[in-house]
Amino acid sequence: MKVLIAPDSFKGSSDALTVAHAMQNGILKVDSKSETVILPMADGGEGTMINLVQATNGTVVTANSVDPLGRQMESKYGISGDGKTAIIELATSSGIDLLNAEELNPLKTTTYGTGMLIKDALERNIKHFIICLGGSATNDAGVGLLQALGFRFLDKNGLDINLGGQYIKDIVTIDDSNVMSLMKEANFEIACDVTNPLIGTNGASYIFGPQKGASVEVVKILDNAIEQFANIIEQQKNLSIHQIEGAGAAGGTAGSMFAFLNANLKRGIELVIDFVELNEMLKQENFDLIITGEGKIDGQTAGGKVISGMCQKAHEYGIPIIALGGSVEGNLSELYNQGLTAAYSITNGPMNLEEAMQNSSCLIEQQTEQIFRTIKMINK
Predict the structure, then answer these.
(1) Which residues span the domain enclosing 82?
(2) Can you tell me which residues the record assigns to a coiled coil (predicted)?
(3) CA of 167: how far to CAs of 67, 110, 170, 279, in Å?
């Protein structure tokens, strides 16, 4: 039997490669002659960087950066195995988890640190970028990120504005004459699973601002400032980003990257599937089965998670697919419609979440073994 093992991480417990090896061990315990291919997967959210590094035998590099409040820090990003692609998670430098509750303030936070990581990768002669926008603490419309790359945002006196969302309202002119020359050949893909536009009651500030510390009053200030900024972009670039689907991601960072970096916005799982060349693999290899998984499988999993993407591809190529989860609950009918054959929980008895997470690798291996013992008996 030839099996593609393509799980996501089990969040807070095991990364995707560890999960895949546990699945592989369970299979080989039953049939040492089975051929297994390991492909760590991700959906564009937390963990995407390390999963894609592992999937391509790439490397993780450390670079100088700043946190959302401009404080010096070291941060990490990934470089693919062929050395051509940088995988950057905005949350590693501009993320909400880097601040405590008292520090959350979208008037002050900036994406400058993420721009520093892009700059570091450009200086390593990398030209292709995958940017994952989840988990931001910012609402600066990506201006900080662009400032780190040499874009200048000038006030009425011709002076550079300071870092932070509160200064977006002061922008009068945008000057790109000092942008890094390396940017000319760079191309950007953004993992963006939200559909919110840049401005308005369904936009970046109103929907995501409160969770980043914005009061009702601050939300209005930020939305008005970003609308004014978008108007200036339209005047100078003849491009309207106000209502572009997904432009509101990461406090408007997606919109600015689209406008200034010609970035391509994609659903996270679709971006990952393209990057790891899954379609080509499924065309060339005669897999008998796919096994995937992630920490929790429920009714929401069908909405763009790794299991959903893998089920759709399995269905497209006529391959049975089994999914393992730390828990399996709720109505999975949509996953079955997408192609899922069956889903199994890895827990084998009464246990709390902490116990399951601490023993996830062992539990994954044991459940995979039991599944394949059943498969082997049926195929006798």
Answers:
(1) 48-269
(2) none
(3) 18, 10, 5, 45
